[in-house]
Design goal:
This protein has 107 residues and is an all-beta fold. It has one domain. 0% of the residues lie in helices and 44% in strands. It is built from no helices and 8 strands. The strands form 3 sheets. The protein has a 4-stranded antiparallel beta sheet, with no helix packed on it. It has a two-stranded antiparallel ribbon with strand order 3-4. Strand 3 and strand 4 form a beta hairpin. It is globular and about 55 Å long. The mean pLDDT is 88. InterPro entries: Kelch-typ_b-propeller.
Amino acid sequence: INDKVYHHKWIPKQTMGVKRSDMSATTVGDAIYLIGGCVKDQEWVADPNYPGYSCGSGTADSVTARTTRYVPATDSHEILFAAPRARYRHADAAVGTKIYLFGGSGH
């Protein structure tokens, strides 16, 4: 028997401090690790070979290498270190206590 009660509503938590999109997120232990991402607004690129949205205006400061750890139990964020290079739209996977990054785009 399930004795949990769900109220089907969002509960606001502490903000990350820096807005970003297109980052990766994975769990290790009791924490969620957020890596990289776009820190500027998405802009439409009308390139006939590759149309679509791109991160910012293509400048180096549009993409971050920031790694942040979020611990839900304490609702706390901690900036850890920079990934080897800034990237967004990448993937990651955790194996044990290691996180592996794959692909993505950078400027």
